[in-house]
Amino acid sequence: MSARRESGGAASPDAPAVPLGGSGRRRAAIGTAWIAFAAALIVFPVVFSNPTVTTIGVFTLVYMTSATAWNGFAGFSGYVPLGHAVFFGVGGYTLALVALHLKMAGGYAMFALVPLGGVAAAVIAVPFGLIALRTRRHTFVVITIAVFFIVQLLAFNLGFTQGSSGVQIPTPLWTAATFNDRFYYAALIVLALAVLVVWGIRRSRFGLQLLAIRDDEDRARGLGVKVQRVKLVGFVLSGVTVGMAGGIYAFFVGQVYPQFAFDPLFDVTVALMAFFGGLGTISGPLLGALLLEPIQQYLTLQYSVGSLYLIIYGALFLVVILAMPRGVIPTAGEYLQMRRARRVERADGRSPAATPSVEVAPLGRASR
Amino acid sequence: MSAHLEVEGVSKAFGGLRALSLCSLSVEKGSIAGLIGPNGSGKTTLFNVITGYVRPDAGTVALGGTPITSARPDEVFALGLGRTFQLTRIFARLTVLENMLVATQRKEGWLRSVARPAASSAEQRRAIELLDFVGLTRLASARAGTLSYGQRKLLELAYVLVADPSVILLDEPAGGVNPTLINEIRERILALNSEGKTFLVVEHNMEFVMGLCHTVTVMHQGSAIVTGTPDAVRSDPRVLDAYLGGGEEQDDDVAVG
Amino acid sequence: MGSSIVQAIIDGVLTGGVYALMAAGLTLIFGVMDIINVAQGIFVILGAYLSYSLSVHAGIDPFLGLLITIPALFVVGIGVEWGFMRRLKEGDRTAMSILVTYAVSIVIEGVLNISFTVNYVQIHAWYVNRSVHLLGFYLPYIYVFGFVMAAVLLIALYALLYRTRFGASVRASLQDRTAARLVGIDVRRVSTISFGIGVAVTAAGGMVFGATNAFNASTSYDLISRLLAIVILGGLGSMGGALVAAVFMLVLEDVVAVAWSPIWATAVFFAALVVVLSIRPAGLFGRQVARAQ
Asked: Taking a C-beta distance cutoff of 8 angstroms, is the pair B168, B6 a contact?
């Protein structure tokens, strides 16, 4: 079947859920890139052992995880949540409060509380999603903001969260030289998990349904997609992952405060990362966080007042959205594809595989 | 032969506007039925009522004897009633093949749907078969949003077929489509009909309707006023009245042929 | 207790009027352009800082200063619309607009932080700390003046929308952009001007806000979340809805603050939104979205 041969050239920028053959060489190249990327992340703290650098490394991994998880819901479903900081904070508070009540000393056992942060996030995410996901897209955004403010207020004012003074988390007695490394690898494991989940979603039937909802929710419902359930599951999975990232973050920082655990800038930051790299792609948010989080950390260290960072961040965001509205990865992908198509055209003198907007060739073939 | 799709006394008002009033219609099993009428006569509303997108104020709809009056769109689809839209509704950012797979029905829990790949090889084969049938295989991995208008209509027809519906409702399949493609669409409908599928077609292109349909129903001001063979309908004076009578509120794209 | 609740209701209505004005701008922008302007909060603060500067450095009375600040923010609004909003693609402009206006918002926040530091300030004038005693209730002059000004501007906005040719174009665009375009309305121009007007009203709102509250740039987060809650509660795009919701929310908050505790007043504010939306997903006066085409 000729379609199979040609499919590599005409593929949409987000890799199709169903690999239709595709060009083997291209897939091998992508696979190699992923392995190299993973290897680089693994050896990073060995090569760069400066604590300042590894500290930035841990924060970057936490944000890579968060951006990936945020995108796993927002990028696929088209619903933009601005209340994922709730899950980030709940993950952190869960770790802090459980450690406090069990009188745990800081150590490896603390990492076991990270998944618990994910569970707590799920417990919040179910009712949150049930209410918020009944509404249409723009209302959804505002509800997520409203829930965020309610939860932040609760953290400030409930007795057991210890109000604005926050909760201290016991610091492990690890030597300074390797202190960051353990957090780094713990964060890397959570990141790997997040990428696996999002990759699995993208390939699964469930992921396809989410993407269909993004494009036309009513039509998807009409074709038998259980839209409410699909959206809710996506929302909860995303929330759980962000909750785990929040747990690692809190443990690393050593304390949770309402204003930092529930930070209104959190969602904008991860949204910017996802948009920068490419919404709805897997590599996009990783790239976005990998580039932007170190910049943010650097600017914060360099200029004690965060104002300049706000200006640079906002301006960068505007430039990205206006110049590359679909993000770096899809734009670059299209560029490469165009070049490849032109190369193919020159090589064997036929038109590139996809000429979809021209309404000629495909007709009639079926009837013959 | 028996009525497969039965609409009985359906009424629907939007605010003060009566879109349907006591509209009745029955479509024989295995037939191709046409639905014509001036703009605003309630054809699309009737489609929306039948397919569960709009709930009627009164009346009943039944498919093969099963009442579907208050069923949701997905339930109607699962019962074997597929539908295309006047302005095609495809998933623009998915590939053509992925569009096909969205429509693939499968009974499974959410956990399995998360864990399982988007399509088994059998489902994929079936999707390709149907794309072959409408002649879109070549574009299987193109983004649906890049298709031309006519190709979108074919894609919509193809993915409605995935669920193997017994009745297919087509809302203006020939509207805005070039003549070559109109013939292509007509051929596909006839081929499916010979396999036993029942059709209900809304269309303004009279030549298309009269050449294709076994029976034609004319709607006017929210009710079905005439049903008969194309020839009988063509010569019925009430039909001319319907098109010319309420002249001032009609649009100009109605070509009585 | 009883009279302090009546006092709270009066305060709520008076401040609600000012919020209604700011929310009306937000809902106008959404209705015409399908854009959720998250920068509305920082525009309010920008307006407050402008009034503050004029009064501190030039000795201009804040109400008089509106003659300068309202046109200034109108121009800012036009600039933002021209620079960013009209470059968004039709397809997913609502989602994108949230992020773009958020980005605009944090840029302005950064600039304000640098220009005015993060220390809280408040606008002062003779009427800010004085009240009129009426039937046993204290009515701060600034609340009364602010309410009257908001009412005047809302009436002016209403007259603009319902009594002028331009207003007819705006309302047509509110109903259906495509149809408006078809009947020859320059929807782009209408959008730009509507955005300008929607932002301009924040100058007035910001002046009153800055006189009744100590503020800095990050106060905008609190403001925008309230304004969004009001607009969504009223039903996106519904002016009347925004008015009713603003007064309802502010009265609710003030009453809870008096009857229960100021700590939970804000939580109740947002909880009310969540409750209403779980019953009516489109808000109190929102258009229910048609399910089929």
From this structure: no
- Contact state of C110 with A131 under an 8 Å Cβ cutoff: no
Q: Which residues contact B118 (CB under 8 A, 6 or more apart)?
A: A17, A18, A203, A204, A205, A207, A208, B98, B101
Query: For A12-46, how does the pLDDT look when each residue is reduced to its tens digit (9 = 90+)?
Result: 344 444 444 456 788 888 889 999 999 999 989 88
**Taking CB atoms and an 8 Å limit, are C107 and A315 in contact across chains?**
yes
Are B86 and B71 in contact by the 8 Å Cβ rule? The answer is no
Identify all chain C residues contacting B86, using CB atoms and an 8 Å cutoff: 293
Are the beta carbons of C221 and A264 separated by less than 8 Å? yes
Nearest to B140 by CA among A224, A213, A356, A359: A356
Q: Which amino acid is at A200?
A: G
Share of chain A above pLDDT 70, in %: 86
- B255 belongs to a structural domain: no
- pLDDT-derived band at B66, boundaries 50, 70, 90: confident
List Cα–Cα distances, A229 to A132, A221, A226, A236, in angstroms. Answer: 13, 11, 6, 11
Q: List, as one string, the DSSP characters of A122-188.
A: HHHHHHHHHHHTTS-HHHHHHHHHHHHHHHHHHHHH-GGGTGGG-EE-PPP---HHHHHHHHHHHHH
The tokens for A193 are 């998990």
Number of H helices, E strands in chain B: 10, 10
Residue B209: domain span:
3-247
Reading the block at residue B231, the tokens are 């020839």
> Domains in chain A, start-ordered, CATH in brackets?
22-348 (1.10.3470)
pTM over the 0.90 mark: no
Number of domains composing chain B:
1
* Residue B253 counted as domain residue: no
| Amino acid identity at A319 | V
CA angle B225, B230, B236 (to 5 degrees): 50
* Long-range contacts of the stretch A103-112 (C-beta < 8 A, 24+): A104/A170, A105/A170, A105/A173, A106/A169, A106/A170, A106/A171, A106/A172, A106/A173, A107/A172, A107/A173, A108/A172, A108/A182, A110/A169, A110/A170, A110/A172, A110/A251, A111/A186, A111/A251
Residue C104 CA, chain-centre distance (Å), reads 17
pLDDT of residue B249: 43
Q: Where does chain A show beta strands of DSSP type E?
A: 167-168, 255-256
Q: Which residues contact B129 (CB under 8 A, 6 or more apart)?
A: none
Q: What is the CATH classification number for the domain harbouring B222?
A: 3.40.50.300
Distances (CA, A) of B132 to B84, B162, B178: 19, 13, 20
Q: List the single residue in A137, A142, A314 with the smallest CB-CB distance to C229.
A: A142
Which candidate from A139, A305, A310 shows the least CB-CB separation from C106?
A310
Suggest the residue from A76, A79, A86, A135 to mutate for an interface test with chain C (most C CBs closer than 10 A): A135
Average pLDDT over residues B80-106: 84
**Are C293 and B54 inside 8 Å of each other by CB?**
no
Tell me if B75 sits within 8 A of B52, measured CB to CB: yes
Q: Is this prediction's ipTM beyond 0.90?
A: no
Q: Do C292 and B53 touch (CB under 8 A)?
A: yes
Rounded CA-CA distance B42/B36 in Å is: 10
Tens digits of residue pLDDT in B217-252:
998 888 888 888 888 888 888 887 777 665 444 444
B91 touching chain C per CB within 8 A: no
Which of B92, B119, B132 is opposite residue A366, by nearest beta carbon? Answer: B132
Per DSSP, C215 falls in state B
For range B55-83, the mean pLDDT: 88
- Residue B163 CA to chain centroid, in angstroms? 14
Coil, strand, or helix at residue B94? coil
Residue B194 lies in a domain: yes
Run of H or E residues at B58: strand B58-63
What does the alpha-carbon distance between residue A251 and residue A190 come to, in Å, rounded to a whole number?
14
Topology (CATH) of C2-279: ABC transporter involved in vitamin B12 uptake, BtuC (1.10.3470)
